[in-house]
Automatic annotation (TrEMBL), chain A:
Organism: Hymenobacter cavernae
The protein, known as: Succinate dehydrogenase
Gene3D superfamilies tied to this protein: Fumarate reductase/succinate dehydrogenase, transmembrane subunit
Domain of life: Bacteria
CDD domains named among the record's database cross-references: SQR_TypeB_2_TM (cd03498)
Keywords per UniProt: Membrane, Transmembrane, Transmembrane helix
Residue ranges crossing the lipid bilayer per the database entry: 16-40, 60-77, 110-129, 158-176, 196-221
Lineage of the organism: Bacteria, Pseudomonadati, Bacteroidota, Cytophagia, Cytophagales
InterPro entries: Cytochrome_b-558 (IPR011138), SQR/QFR_C/D (IPR034804)
Keyword rRNA-binding: no
TrEMBL record, chain C:
Gene3D superfamilies, A to Z: FAD/NAD(P)-binding domain (3.50.50.60), Fumarate reductase/succinate dehydrogenase flavoprotein-like, C-terminal domain (1.20.58.100), Succinate dehydrogenase/fumarate reductase flavoprotein, catalytic domain (3.90.700.10)
Co-factor requirement: FAD
Name the UniProt record assigns to this protein: Succinate dehydrogenase flavoprotein subunit
Pfam (any one): Succ_DH_flav_C
Organism, scientific name: Hymenobacter cavernae
Signal peptide region: none
Keyword annotations of the record: Flavoprotein, Oxidoreductase
Source taxonomy: Bacteria, Pseudomonadati, Bacteroidota, Cytophagia, Cytophagales
Domain of life, source organism: Bacteria
Domain FAD-dependent oxidoreductase 2 FAD-binding intervals: 35-441
InterPro entries found in the cross-reference section: FAD-dep_OxRdtase_2_FAD-bd, FAD/NAD-bd_sf, Fum_R/Succ_DH_flav-like_C_sf, Fum_Rdtase/Succ_DH_flav-like_C, SdhA/FrdA/AprA, Succ_DH/Fum_Rdt_flav_su, Succ_DH/fumarate_Rdtase_cat_sf
Chain ranges of the Fumarate reductase/succinate dehydrogenase flavoprotein-like C-terminal domain: 502-636
Length: 228, 261, 637
């Protein structure tokens, strides 16, 4: 099967993998965001905990979880491989370089933005995913694991909120470039559609990231003490 | 009136020029001062002045590539003040004129930097990697003679025009020089899309893109991350659309060709 | 003694067909036993290299550029002529032949020009098949435009970049053969001498421009496709590296140099702006379709051109040539511009420019329409001069553009040295005393794709297919001479740079052997050049060594050859006591100041033979026979 490995280890092949996994992860963001809107329901976390219980136990979701994991792994691995290769392609750096005059900073900083997101992801996964799945959470009134309380207490810490908001800003810029870049990599660049794709990319990045960022801010600033 | 402008004041400039004896030598920036530079001069004419000066002083002149000095041969390739071909958009180094600079300016001049473009000397680099990419498939395999009449296959004007626009690439290498990743995708895509658009290019369409991309990777260029620095600095305006076409051609060739390698 | 020009017998239209049948063939299995060296990879060289490799010959191709694609063919703007008659406007092979002969002021060989017109149609087919994106009509068929010197539309083009597209086509064909291993490509390698064995061309000596390594290369035949020598004038529209060294070295080994004084001056170039000027840029001739050429009536009138009222302007071309106006041929337009400037009515700081004014057409058709036609040219002009031609008239001045002269070749494109061929601008063959627009590309590709593949076989078939090596003492001797010359250049250690000598030469050539020449001036120039040559070899300044990338050293070698060629050009201009095409002798003009040809005494090709160091060159004459066209005096009144 050498042609397959040759294809996907070529510069374009790797980019295609990054693009496909990137778009797939975008779809995950939408699902994740919609689910998380349960946090805004004023029911002491009951709906959110039902949702998280469903996500943690449903066999379809549990299967897709592995697909998602693969998506992340490929996206991160291929991106880092490419970034390393690209860095190596210019062993001697320019004495003076003014890239800001020909391109936006975030397009040149995808690896850095991705790394910030990755750090966030690890913290986020440990704190919520790991503890919900394997951890020690108390049951809520419906006897579901009370993830909501954990979210609440986490989002009451300023440094945690700061990390989340910063990560969403990074994600937003990552998406502004990544979304349209994925279509370009997959070969879609057309004078009719490219402006539309760019507009959707902007809107998608801003709305999704704003949606995620509002959650910690809402808890930190507006949510009263829990009535336990 | 320039050229006949009595108000155009001569300039004195400080040049920080990359000097490197040969491919394997250590290089570094050396500072020079040039005086009485007319704003009407081209950038290369300003370097001519420096070189005549150096020669008179018994110092080695600065080696740089140039030839036609009218923006079409693609020889000139200077990285000026942190930009490929300098500050003016859509312009080769030879068409950049000193009126774009001011008296007292310090100008940094470096060669293109990419592993695939090793430095020959000073500001001259070896771009033969581009030739090898074309040799890998940037042609239509027709021998001389025996070709059909030029009007045998009509080509819609919009297609012919787009193919022409891609074909105007001068292979200067500014795309590689400007790209953060030192990627040659814009160069490769220009040739691939020219021939993919034209009916004459259809016969070898799949093998062409497979072989050219393989050679591009072999030469040690970086991968494209769609930043767009290449197109922004391209002196002849090759568009990013060509890179999308290249991606598309590559994906579909890999998926459907009979090539098992 | 000039050898036979080998023009085939028979009617004009059948000569080439007959000749192709009569030449000897090399059988396909034997072709791989022959090595051919091709120097230069422009249109003529790349097309020949690709075509010969396709036939099976082993080709070694040499270029001093970093890539074959940088050859100066790339800069040709306008187009390429071909007698396709796609426009149904009465074109034919004979008409293209006739226009070319007439345009060349009856100083070219009928048989060669007719063959050129015949194969012109194949060139277009070949280029289209290679994927050259010629301009097309909305119906998808090829578009044509008209060009100077013709009454039909036969010029194929790719916007203003026809040369680029054709060269990239030939380059792609060459690249394909490099990939197949049939062409071995030597880039950044300059030919410094020709090697002769037993009176035949057997190889070349080269210098690697990066390392300075001197190499020897052997082959059964050598083709020079090294372009023209316009840079003898220092300032020209040629690329900076364009030079005569390969052709001149071959000349000194025995190849005759034909009509060296035939140079073409193009009327519409951007004028010189100062002493530092390194080259001149052509503005397409098409601008004269709408631009009006003028100078102030009064001498030394330095007012802003917009402030000069109509009745104080002299539209001298419209005044003198009411029938053709601003569209007179290149040589006439150039000479009149020079005349106006000589009278002290030139414009700009240097006084060496005339106005090309678009105010009328902008007023008549609107800036938008004008921009559609000439937008890219106006942009280029503004980039170089910093002036906006929509507001201010352009300033233009004539500049050296093309050299019709070159190595003498017979009908087979073989020089007077057996086994040495010359193609493209490097030879003298097809343009007579003046080249028509869009004919240079045609000739380069005709020679490379469709002539040399046939004619070189005739020679090779008569050469034993035994391997050639560089073991013969002639190689060692030629190599030693090349080394000695380089060492000599480096060891002079004088005070003047190669560029300073080049500028001095250019000044002499332009003053006395440029647009207008006279016997007194030419004699003066000859003495000046001889003096300059002595100074060169005693006062040249170089740094560094041979064993490195040394651009000043490269340049010095080329300038040395230009100085020698310059003297021959002057000599040639001096012996041709007539005016024809690009050669205007002030003593020979009609009462209306037009060129006065002397067909009685000068209907010949002047082929110069090198006689040895310090001896005058020997003039050989090839009488031109005109059996198919009638010689007439041109008039554009």
């Amino acid at each position: 099967m050498s042609w397959i490995s040759n294809t996907f280890s070529s510069s374009i092949g790797r980019k295609v993998l990054v693009a496909i996994t990137g778009l797939f992860l975008c779809s995950f963001l939408v699902v994740h965001l919609i689910g998380n809107f349960q946090l805004f329901k004023n029911d002491g976390g009951a709906a959110f905990n039902i949702y998280s219980h469903f996500m943690g136990t449903n066999p379809v979701i549990r299967t897709l979880e592995w697909v998602l994991l693969l998506g992340f792994v490929f996206h991160i691995y291929e991106s880092y491989t490419l970034a390393a290769r690209n860095r190596a392609a210019r062993a001697v750096a320019y004495v003076e370089s003014r890239p800001s005059q020909n391109s936006p900073w975030y397009s040149r900083s995808m690896a850095l933005l991705g790394t910030i997101i990755l750090v966030f992801l690890l913290v986020h996964m440990y704190n919520f995913f790991y503890r919900a799945r394997f951890g020690d959470l108390d049951p809520d009134i419906n006897n579901n694991a009370d993830l909501y309380t954990l979210v609440y207490s986490s989002f009451k810490q300023w440094w945690y909120v700061l990390l989340y908001v910063a990560a969403q800003v990074a994600l937003c810029y990552h998406l502004i470039h990544g979304f349209r870049s994925a279509f370009q990599t997959l070969g879609l660049n057309h004078r009719k559609y490219t402006p539309i794709i760019r507009a959707i990319g902007y809107a998608f990045a801003v709305l999704v990231c704003a949606g995620f960022a509002i959650m910690p801010l809402y808890f930190f600033f507006f949510k009263p003490e829990l009535a336990h | 009136m320039a050229g006949s402008n009595p108000n155009a004041k001569p300039m004195n400039l400080t040049l920080k020029v990359w000097r490197q004896k040969n491919r394997n030598a250590e290089g570094g920036i050396v500072e020079y001062h040039v005086k009485d530079i007319s704003p009407e001069m081209s950038f290369l004419e300003m370097l001519d002045v420096l070189n005549e000066d150096l020669l008179h002083k018994g110092e080695d002149p600065v080696a740089f590539d140039h030839d036609c000095r009218e923006g079409i041969c693609g020889s000139c390739n200077l990285f000026i003040n942190g930009r490929a071909h300098g500050p003016e958009k859509g312009t080769t180094t030879c068409q950049l004129h000193m009126r774009k600079f001011n008296d007292g300016d310090t100008i940094t001049i470096e060669p293109w930097r990419a592993n695939a473009f090793p430095v020959n000397r000073d500001l001259s680099v070896d771009r033969s990697a581009f030739d090898r990419i074309i040799q890998a498939g940037g042609y239509v395999s027709v021998n001389t003679g025996g070709t059909p009449d030029g009007n045998e296959i009509p080509i819609p004007k919009p297609i012919a025009d787009r193919a022409f626009e891609a074909a105007t690439c001068i292979a200067c290498g500014a795309c590689v020089a400007a790209c953060k990743n030192a990627s040659a995708m814009l160069f490769v895509s220009a040739k691939v899309s020219q021939l993919a658009l034209l009916p004459q290019g259809q016969v070898e369409r799949k093998t062409r893109v497979e072989n050219m991309v393989a050679q591009m990777d072999k030469e040690g260029f970086g991968a494209c991350t769609n930043i767009g620095q290449c197109a922004a600095e391209c002196p002849v305006g090759i568009s990013l659309e060509n890179i999308a076409i290249l991606n598309r051609e590559f994906i579909s060739a890999k998926a459907t060709s009979n090539n098992l390698a | 003694m000039l050898p036979d020009s080998k023009i085939p017998e028979g009617p004009l239209a059948e000569k080439w067909e007959k000749h192709k049948f009569n030449v000897k063939l090399v059988n396909p299995a034997n072709k791989r036993k022959y090595d051919v060296i091709i120097v230069g990879t422009g249109l003529a060289g790349a097309s020949a290299a690709a075509s010969l490799a396709e036939l099976g010959y082993n080709v070694k191709a040499f270029t001093y550029h970093d890539s074959p694609r940088r050859a100066h063919s790339i800069a040709a703007q306008g187009g390429i002529n071909a007698a396709k008659n796609y426009q149904n406007d009465g074109d034919s092979v004979f008409r293209l032949f006739y226009d070319t002969i007439k345009g060349g002021d009856y100083r070219a060989r009928e048989a060669n020009v007719y063959r050129l017109a015949q194969v012109s149609v194949n060139i277009i087919d070949q280029c289209v098949a290679q994927g050259v994106p010629f301009a097309r009509e909305y119906g998808g068929l090829l578009a044509n435009r008209s060009f100077g010197g013709a009454q039909v539309s036969r010029t194929f083009y790719a916007r203003g970049q026809t040369g680029q597209q054709l060269l990239l086509g030939a380059y792609s064909a060459l690249s394909r053969q490099v990939a197949y291993g049939k062409v071995k490509l030597y880039t950044r390698t300059e030919m410094l001498d020709l090697v002769m064995v037993d009176g035949k061309a057997r190889g070349i000596i080269t210098r690697n421009l990066i390392t300075g390594e001197i190499q020897t290369h052997a082959a059964h035949a050598v083709i020079l496709a090294t372009g023209g020598y316009g840079n003898v004038f220092y300032l020209s529209t040629n690329a900076k590296y364009s030079n005569t060294t390969a052709a001149w070295r071959a000349h000194k080994k025995g190849a005759y140099f034909a009509n060296p004084c035939f140079t073409q001056i193009h009327p519409t170039c951007i004028p010189v702006s100062g002493d530092y000027q390194s080259k001149l840029t052509l503005m397409s001739e098409s601008l004269r379709n709408d631009g009006r050429v003028w100078v102030p009536k009064a001498k030394g009138d330095k007012r802003d051109p917009r402030q000069i009222p109509e009745d104080e302007r002299d539209y001298f071309l419209e005044r003198k040539y009411p029938a053709f106006g601003n569209l007179v041929p290149r040589d006439v337009a150039s000479r009149n511009a020079k005349q106006a400037c000589d009278e002290g009515r030139g414009v700009g700081t240097t006084g060496l420019a005339v106005y090309l004014d678009f105010a009328d057409v902008i007023k008549r058709e609107g800036a938008d329409k004008v921009s559609q036609k000439y937008g890219n040219l106006f942009e280029m002009y503004e980039k170089i001069t910093g002036e906006n031609p929509y507001e201010l008239p352009m300033r233009i001045y004539p500049a050296v553009h093309y050299t019709m002269g070159g190595l003498w070749v017979d009908y087979n494109l073989q020089t007077t040295i057996p086994g040495l061929y010359a193609t493209g601008e490097c030879n003298f063959s097809d343009h007579g005393a003046n080249r028509l627009g869009a004919s240079a590309l045609m000739q380069g590709l005709a020679d490379g794709y469709f002539v040399i593949p046939y004619t070189i076989g005739d020679y090779l078939a008569q050469t034993p297919p035994t391997p050639v090596t560089t073991q013969h003492p002639a190689f060692a001797q030629a190599e030693a001479e090349v080394r000695e010359r380089i060492n000599k250049l480096i060891s002079i250690k004088g005070n003047r740079t190669p560029t300073e000598f080049h500028k001095a030469l250019g000044h002499i050539m332009w003053e006395y052997c440029g647009m207008a020449r006279n016997a007194e001036g030419l004699r003066h120039a000859k003495a000046e050049i001889q003096k300059l040559r002595k100074e060169f070899w005693s006062d040249l300044k170089l740094t560094g060594t041979n064993e490195e990338l040394n651009q000043a050293l490269e340049n010095a070698g080329r300038v040395a050859d230009f100085i020698e060629l310059g003297e021959l050009m002057v000599e040639d201009a001096l012996q041709r006591n007539e005016s024809c095409g690009g050669h205007f002798r002030e003593e020979y003009q009609t009462p209306e100041n037009e060129a006065l040809r002397d067909d009685e005494n000068f209907a010949y090709v002047a082929a110069w033979e090198y006689a040895g160091e310090g001896k005058p060159e020997i003039l050989n004459k090839e009488e031109l026979q005109f059996e198919n066209v009638k010689l007439t005096q041109r008039s554009y009144k």
